[in-house]
Every structure is written in C-alpha cells, then in structure tokens.
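Quick question about two entries, pasted in order.
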Amino acid sequence: MNVRPISGASVDARRGRHGRRGLALVAGGLLLAVTACGGGGSGDAKAKGSGSAQSKQSQAVVTIAPRTGAKSVDTSGALKVRASKGRLTRVTVQDAKGTAVPGAISGDGSTWTPSTHLAAATAYTVHAVAEDSAGRTAAEDSRFTTLTPRNTFIGDFTPEDGSTVGVGMPFSLRFTRGITHPADVENAVRVTTEPKVPVAGHWFGNDRLDFRPEHYWKPGTKVTVRLALDGVEGRPGVYGKQDKTVSFTIGRSQVSVVDAAKHTMKVTRDGKVIRTLPVTTGKPGYSTWNGQMVMSERLTETRMNGETVGYGGEYDIKDVPHAIRLTTSGTFIHGNYWGGDAFGNYNASHGCVGLRDVRGGYDGSAPAAWFFDHSMIGDVVVVKNSHDRTVAPDNGLNGWNMSWKEWTA
C-alpha cells in the first residue's frame, strides 16, 4: 500500500523537475529572443562604442558674418565665412530665388570668399559645413538682408540690345553718376564673345566705360554683355541698380577711307572696294579730323546750325539729307545739295564730309543716298591727309585711335 504513493510521488517529482526544466528552457528561449532583438552581447558592445564615437561633437567651429537676422548689410565686404579647428568643405549662399553667389574656399580651408558683390535689398541664406581632423562635421546657417540704397546709378549703353552693327562698334556705357570706384564697376561688367576674342575696357573720365577688342570685330561675332551692377557701390553711398544682359551681333565688314587731299572716298566691303565716291571735306580753317571714326547715329534728315558747334551764324541748314554722325562734337558724313562742283574737286565744308545729294533726299541714285543705304551703325570711316589733328578717342565712339597698349594701360 505504501509503494504506490512512493512511486506516485517519485513520478510527480520527476514530472515536476521535468516541468521546471521546461520552464527554464522556455525562459531561456524568451531570454534569447529578447537578446536577439537587442543584437546580442558582443553586438551591444560594438553599437555602444560606435554610438559614443558618433555622438562626440566636432571640434570644427564655423562662423558666419553677418549673423542671422541682420539687416541693411553692405553689399561688399560684409559676407565672411570662417572655420577654426577644421576645414570648410561646403559653403552655399543664395537669394530667395535660388540664385547662387559664386565664391571660393581658401587653400587651407579656413575661409570662404565671395567672388562678386551682393545685390541690394535682397535676402540671402548661408549654409556652411566644416570638418575636423577626425572627419566629424559641424554646420552653421545665417539669414540676412542687404541694404536698400538711397542713391543709385545706371549705365546708359550703346549699341541696343538685339542689334546688328558694324565691325567698329564698341560697347559703350555712360553712367548717370560719376564713378569713384572704377575697378568695382568694371568688374561687374562681363563681356563674352562667340567666337572668343580678348576684350578690354577703358575709362574716359569718371562716367564713361567702353569695351573693344584689339582689332575691329570679325564679321558674325556674337557679343554678350552682362551688366551685374545691382549692389555695386560706384561712389560712396551710391549703388548700381542694373541687372541686365545685352547682346548684339557684328554684321559684314565695311570700312570707308576718305582722302581729303584727293577728295575721294573708297568704300570697302569685306575686303573689296565696292565703290569710290567724290567728296568734299573741311575747307582751310575748318579742316576735318583725321583718324578712325565710327558711325553712331543715322538721320534721314536733320538740321545743322553753326551755333551748336561754335561757328556762330555761319550756317543754318534745316533739311540736311542722309546724315551719319561720326563725332560727338558734330562731325557728320552727309548729303549736300548746295555744294555745286566741290565734290571730287576741292574742300568746302565746315569740317564734315559731304556727298552729292538732292534737296529732300528723294534721289536714291545720288552718292549720299547710296552710301546711307549701304551703311549701318558701327561702320568705320577713316579720314587721312587732312590738315587737322587726329580725332580724340572720346569724341564719339572713336577709341580705335588709341593703341592697344594705351587702351589697356
């Protein structure tokens, strides 16, 4: 009778032990499952070490001037990005439209400098990233607004955008205010050509800047001028407000040579003489300028009054036909219906180059009408063998009377 209970107890005990082992295994399984979700013992140590390294702050320090929220910031010299205890790796500066400001990181990575000025009255954002010796990065941002100028200037330019002009045409800018920071202004005017040719600017006084190549343009050249003057301080407290692109194309080559001694003009088109015309030039005491003169204006009819050029009341002709301006001071090559037999024989004008014409300019076969119809702004007229000196380079668009060395000095 006692055997069964003992036997039964033994069985229960065994079952109990087996059950506990089963629980232990289940618990172990749960523990393993939980551990597996955590990555395992050795994996934990790695993750903790890696996370700790990444969490260390970069030693690099980025500073941006001006700071966020700054207003009325100067358009030149105020924007500065620096890094200490590290090297700059990326700097982005752009306006609200996403237009980037170009610039360069220094060789040692310590500074970033903009390569151009900023526009006036414009909001900018700056994002800069630097890296320390361990490869850890630090970043800084800034948002600021540039000044709104009280006084501004623009450059009135010739030739017109989209025009086709002769081979002698410079790109000429006349500023509405005298410029005392010429280098800053000139650097903001970028001239590019297709095909490429070196082009240089030259200042006449403090309010005029002309650009030209060393020699006349080649026919077919396309010229593009970027006027990035917005924000340029042209003189203390006076800022440019132009942001414009101008393009023009060089047409065929036409250069006409006036010989004041022989009273003739040879018209050369693309290297070939296409016509020789009889002319009259300035009479003694009123000689025509020598030198290279560029056509700057064409008028089918105009009034010429001696009082406007310092000759008093010596003449006042209200209907001069086919007039083409060669100088600012009043030299024209024009039609002349009152000259009699002077053309090709003697000089009778007050300094202009005269071609035979009819009153009203209706005769298209007259030399003046023919020449007018076959000319364009930018064509060149060269006068030689006159008794006057060479025309001043700034008297009209006549910078070709300076050598390239003088032009680029």
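Here is the second entry:
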Amino acid sequence: MTGLERDETLIAAARAALAGEPEGIRARMRIVAGDGRDTGVHFLPGGFDVVLCHGVLMHVEEPDALLAGLARMLAPGGLLSLLVRNGDAPALRPGLSGDWAGALAAFDATAPRPRLPRARTDADGETHARTGPGVRADRLADLTATLAGIGAPLHSWYGVRVFTDTAADGTEPPADLETLLAAEDRAGRTDPYRAVAGLLHLCGVRG
C-alpha cells in the first residue's frame, strides 16, 4: 500500500502512526511526499489496481488535473474510488439544521462546483456552520463526465451519510448501531435517497 501526501504535518502524523504498527504492516506500507497532480514524477503509468481519493477533492480548487493524475496510475480494469461532498443538494444540510437563510441561499447557488459551509461541533454536541469559506462540493453529473474523459468511466455510485449527516461528531454510537448502519446502507444504494446524501462515493473503472 502506498500513501501520497504533500502536507508535511500530515506526513509526519502518518509516519508516527505507522511506527506503532507491527513490522508486517510497516513492511507493506509506503508513504510518498508529493502532489497527486504530478504522479508521473513518482509512479509508472498503470502501476496500481486500486486508487483511493477520499475527502480530498473538497480541498482542491481545480481538481481536474488531480483526477487525471490519479487515473494515469490505474492498470487496465483498475478502480478509482472517490469520496466527495455532494453538490447536488446544498440546501438540505442547512435546512435540517434549522439554518433557513442558509438553505434559501443554497437554492440560489449556481457555481459549477458549489461551496458548502464547514461544520463545527460544540462541547454540548450541538453542530453549527462555521464562519469563513466553506469546502468545495462536486456534482454527480460533472464527475461522471470527468471520469469518462480521463478513461475511468463511472461504474457505480452511492450516497454516504443520508440520514446521519447532521449527527454531531464524537458522540457515542447508539444502541441500535447495526440497524442504523443497515438503514444507511440501504438508503445509500436507493433512489431518490442517495441523491441527497451528504457525501457521494463514486467508483470509476479504467477501460
């Protein structure tokens, strides 16, 4: 397994965590300092069967070059897995949180890649939108077109956090966790529920 990261703080944290793992795990893991847009500097084309890019695109202003670099690393039949913020239902999160002004403003958002507010959780467990710039979100249709253009067309997609996107971080899991997970899994695979999930999981396959 290979991890690619350009932030030195995150690299140091990953290496510190890896140092505490058994030798068998350390031997299978490699951490490379670099940018996903420059994969040709670090890797040969088609060198990976699976490439994961989870929670990254939301922090990249123009992700097309990054996605092309990741697709370049895929072997024929290889899987590109993306986890992104959902830009198709921006009004749902503020509406469910009682932020009516934010919900109305989200309806009028016309940017190709809208920005959604960051969230913070207070000590009492209450979740609020953070002030300042939000993180980017991506629309399913746009990413579908992008994946086709980089030679890894969309194979399947799922909604993530359909029912639980407004849940506060750090809370104890409920007693009926298995039932909750079953409901989330079912909703994430079923229309129309998956289309309004907080996150989208897209799987593209290299032709």
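Reply: The chain has one domain: 35-205. Residues 126 and 183 are 23 Å apart (CA to CA). Hope that helps.
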